[in-house]
Specification:
- With 350 residues, this protein is α/β, with parallel strands linked by helices.
- The longest helix is centred in the middle third of the chain and has 14 residues, at 144-157.
- It is built from 13 helices and 17 strands.
- Helix 5 crosses helix 11 (300-309).
- The chain folds into 2 domains: 2-143 and 315-349, Alpha-Beta Complex (Quinone Oxidoreductase, Chain A, domain 1); 149-288, Rossmann fold (3-Layer(aba) Sandwich).
- Helix 7 (195-203) links the parallel strand 9 (187-192) and strand 10.
- The protein has helices at residues 39-43, 93-96, 106-111, 138-141, 144-157, 172-183, 195-203, 217-224, 242-251, 276-281, 300-309, 328-336, 338-341; strands at residues 2-6, 12-16, 27-37, 61-68, 80-83, 121-125, 129-131, 164-168, 187-192, 208-211, 230-235, 253-261, 285-288, 294-295, 298-299, 319-324, 345-349.
- This is Galactitol-1-phosphate 5-dehydrogenase.
- Keywords: Metal-binding, Oxidoreductase, Zinc.
- Belongs to the zinc-containing alcohol dehydrogenase family.
């Protein structure tokens, strides 16, 4: 099959590699139709990472079932599906209660199986597949991984009707956070540095947008909330911006409020000074949010798929660019240059 393999300098090379085979009777083979580039992928872009060299990456995808194991009854060849790309070892205590996002072996397992979408085919357990309604396109479905990350953060936040919420970062996850917060009955403030991303946030229902290059977000938020601050701040920028955005999230949160950390950190120890006395005296609750899994008895991805299918989540508007897999390096350049390209979600057609 054709696949994009990570090179020594952190770009991609299109090569022919062996097509995966179904390893177990309850697994399936999926022909990938669309995959997406997310913030996590961009943090690996142009980085020399020996452990990832010559590996297939990617974890936001939708496609068609082409082959099923002998025990599979949930799906059949020809079915249009979205694939959950979070797969733990299946044996730890967290996996046993469907909190596989917390599995200590999550990344080791998923990187060898379901998180390999920059290619033509992918193998996955049948339980990780969700059938797509005919009116939901592959491109829209590829955003469900992103929406699911935002859904998990929403659940952890305990958001309530009439809450005032700030979302820092207007990338795909931040815009997903915005839509879910609006569905929950909250007012939503969006903070970002890219005008095109803020314009998109306004189109998707943001009550106030703030360009942090031009205005002080804390001052603007305090003016909007009459000095109180927001009930919940979602940090959705992540990566290298964390030393600025996480203290910012704390500063614009009200007494007794919550800061939910959604954006991803880079590996290793990272020193981020915070006003810990203020956090303690104000009883600000800092809540880390990791990927997604089940909430109670419901798959968070299936919850997002239902909302998307009912027209309550808008994925179509967020898809700003589309490339073929052969153009993956150009696609990454476009996704990285948000200010110049206006990119939000960049889709790769396989």
């Amino acid at each position: 099959m054709k696949a994009a393999l990570k090179t020594e300098d952190g770009r991609f090379s299109i090569e022919d590699v062996e097509k995966p085979e179904i390893p177990n009777p309850d697994w399936v083979l999926v022909r990938i139709r669309v995959t997406g580039i997310c913030g996590t992928d961009l943090r690996h872009w142009k980085k020399a990472e020996p452990q990832l060299t010559h590996k297939i990456m990617g974890h936001e995808l939708a496609g068609e079932v082409v082959e099923v194991g002998s025990n599979v009854t949930k799906v059949k060849p020809g079915d249009r599906v979205v694939v959950e790309t979070l797969l733990g070892d299946g044996t730890c205590e967290w996996c046993q209660v469907q909190q596989y996002n917390l599995c200590p072996n999550l990344y080791k397992v998923r990187m060898e199986t379901v998180s390999r979408s920059f290619a033509e085919f992918l193998m996955a357990p049948a339980e990780k597949l969700h059938l797509l309604p005919e009116h939901v396109s592959f491109e829209e479905a590829a955003l469900l991984d992103t929406f699911s990350v935002s859904m998990h953060a929403i659940q952890l936040s305990g958001i309530k009707l009439n809450d005032v919420v700030a979302v820092i970062g207007a990338g795909p996850i931040g815009l997903g956070q915005l839509q879910l917060a609006k569905l929950s009955g909250a007012e939503v403030i969006i903070v970002d540095m890219v005008d095109s991303s803020l314009a998109m946030a306004k189109e998707l229902g943001a009550d106030l947008v703030i360009n942090s290059k031009n205005d002080d977000p804390v001052k603007k938020v305090m003016e909007y909330t009459n000095g109180k601050g927001v009930d919940i701040a979602f940090e959705c920028a992540g990566g290298q911006s964390m030393p600025q955005t996480l203290p910012q999230a704390v500063a614009l949160t009200s007494i007794g409020g919550k800061v939910v950390i959604v954006g991803g950190f880079d590996e290793g120890e990272i020193a981020i000074p915070l006003e810990w006395q203020h956090i303690q005296k104000s009883e600000i609750n800092i809540i880390p949010s990791a990927s997604y899994s089940f909430w109670g008895i419901q798959s968070e991805m299936k919850m997002c798929l239902d909302l998307l299918a009912k027209g309550k989540l808008n994925a179509k508007k967020m898809i700003t660019h589309s490339f073929n897999l052969d153009e993956i390096n150009k696609a990454f350049e476009t996704a990285e240059d948000k200010e110049g390209s206006g990119a939000i979600f960049v889709a790769l057609k396989v």
